[in-house]
């Protein structure tokens, strides 16, 4: 008999970021197409994707205007690089547009194929810059525990997750500071303000211990995404930025998830009221239709890097598909769609409803300890005991069970630690949101009843 799609997927895929026992037991979900925020599997089953793919399919799975923009560009000029001073008109248009919509009054853009590569490229830019300015020892990178910056050797070293130990990472010189999650890491009796101050002090102590002249830059997601949707503690960026400025350490905002509307503003740094020295973008940049990342340099870094490159006549770094014309054409259309077709507005209009619905679910549950998030990115954290915030035993895989039960019910959401993450496409309607609430609560009740 012919093998099922699920068995064929299992036989030929070397899966990344996939819980193998779970996929062997349940089978992979093999998808064929999408409609709005829904995806359909080979058996015709429909799922509401409350994950937007991987945070990126913000315009849903069948946006005609985006597909048309891609097709038109494939017909017109289907591929080119941006080396040797040759680049496509679409690349020029996108760079102009990115600076226009950025918080910067001027700057420059460098393109990659992914968010990981954009972070890697930024690190190389900082190393290149400091060396060119006579500070070759300025190479250490500061990030935070629970941060996710990617999977390449450098960006995985920046990522603050214990799972990277299996690769012998992080490399030396990547330093992780405390995650700014007050609910989990605030100490007994400590106010949120005091917690923020403690983290700012930790940053300054670290800079002084390591030596400011050894530190190349500080990277932060405005809201940690893959760390479990963790907005910063109150006043966090306002507390750390003056310290970074004092020691001349650039602040890089990794907006791979937060960029282009996810937090309710174009950029997460606007939602949290700080201006970084550069922005890392990917995912939403092309509404998930093309693998593309961008480093958007603010005025000072842009000018200094340009001067450093002029000195040796080139910045020796780039990818074959940097600034790919089809990716750029799609990104131009995606920015237009998000900003001018009501998607950003929909996030702002419906995010209070999303928060209220999730809060009601939390209030009705004995085992949801925290709701956190902003805009269209939220997480519910499961706890064994609410008053003491005691987590479930890790071996129970509580969030995976909840996510699997959701999948059975036709809802895709993501388990992260002991949290369930919801980051729906920006096109979500009220009715679809209600469907999400209903299925999610049904799954939570079922799993918590089984664990009781
Ligand atoms: N930075 C952040 C904040 C991310 O969330 C991700 C991916 O989820 C990355 C970087 C890496 O992007 P990519 O998977 O495109 O390499």
Automatic annotation (TrEMBL):
Organism of origin: Paracoccus caeni
A biological-process GO annotation: biotin biosynthetic process
Lineage: Bacteria, Pseudomonadati, Pseudomonadota, Alphaproteobacteria, Rhodobacterales
UniProt keyword annotation of Transferase present: yes
Any GO molecular function: pyridoxal phosphate binding
Record keywords: Aminotransferase, Pyridoxal phosphate, Transferase
CDD domains listed in its UniProt record: OAT_like
Database matches in InterPro entries: Aminotrans_3 (IPR005814), Aminotrans_3_PPA_site (IPR049704), PyrdxlP-dep_Trfase (IPR015424), PyrdxlP-dep_Trfase_major (IPR015421), PyrdxlP-dep_Trfase_small (IPR015422)
Protein name: Aminotransferase class III-fold pyridoxal phosphate-dependent enzyme
Cofactor requirements of the protein: pyridoxal 5'-phosphate
Family: Belongs to the class-III pyridoxal-phosphate-dependent aminotransferase family.
């Amino acid at each position: 008999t012919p093998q099922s799609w699920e068995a064929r997927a299992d036989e030929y895929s070397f899966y990344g970021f996939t819980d193998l026992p779970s996929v062997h037991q349940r089978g992979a979900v093999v998808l064929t197409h999408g409609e709005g925020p829904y995806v359909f599997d080979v058996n015709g089953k429909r799922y509401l994707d409350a994950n937007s793919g991987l945070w990126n399919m913000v315009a849903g799975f069948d946006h005609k205007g985006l597909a048309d923009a891609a097709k038109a560009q494939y017909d017109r000029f289907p591929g080119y690089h941006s080396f040797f001073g040759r680049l496509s008109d679409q690349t020029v248009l996108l760079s102009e547009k990115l600076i226009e919509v950025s918080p910067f009054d001027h700057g420059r853009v460098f393109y990659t194929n992914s968010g990981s590569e954009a972070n890697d490229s930024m690190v190389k830019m900082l190393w290149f810059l400091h060396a060119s300015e006579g500070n070759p020892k300025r190479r250490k990178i500061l990030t935070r525990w629970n941060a996710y910056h990617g999977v390449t050797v450098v960006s995985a070293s920046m990522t603050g997750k214990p799972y990277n130990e299996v690769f012998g990472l992080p490399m030396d010189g990547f330093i992780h500071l405390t995650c700014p999650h007050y609910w989990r890491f605030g100490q007994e009796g400590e106010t949120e303000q005091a917690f923020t101050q403690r983290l700012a002090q930790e940053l300054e102590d670290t800079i002084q211990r390591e030596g400011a002249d050894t530190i190349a830059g500080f990277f932060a997601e405005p809201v940690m995404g893959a760390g479990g949707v963790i907005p910063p503690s109150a006043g966090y960026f306002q507390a750390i930025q003056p310290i970074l400025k004092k020691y001349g350490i650039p602040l890089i905002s990794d907006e791979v998830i937060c960029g282009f509307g996810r937090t309710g503003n174009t950029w997460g740094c606007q939602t949290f009221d700080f201006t970084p020295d550069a922005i890392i973008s990917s995912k939403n940049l092309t509404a998930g239709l093309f693998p593309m990342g961008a480093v958007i340099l603010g005025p000072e870094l842009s000018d200094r890097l340009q001067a450093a490159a002029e000195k040796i006549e080139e910045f020796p770094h780039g990818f074959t598909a940097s600034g790919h014309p089809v990716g750029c054409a799609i990104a131009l259309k995606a920015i237009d769609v998000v900003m001018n077709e009501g998607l950003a507005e929909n996030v702002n209009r419906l995010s209070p409803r999303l928060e209220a619905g999730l809060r009601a679910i939390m209030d009705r549950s004995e085992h949801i300890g925290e709701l956190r998030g902003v805009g269209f990115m939220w997480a519910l954290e499961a706890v064994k005991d609410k008053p003491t915030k005691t987590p479930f035993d890790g071996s129970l895989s509580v969030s995976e069970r909840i996510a699997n039960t959701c999948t059975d019910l036709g809802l895709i959401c993501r388990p992260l630690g002991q949290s369930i993450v919801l980051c729906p496409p920006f096109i979500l309607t009220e009715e679809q949101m209600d469907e999400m609430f209903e299925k999610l609560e049904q799954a939570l009740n079922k799993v918590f009843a089984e664990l009781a």
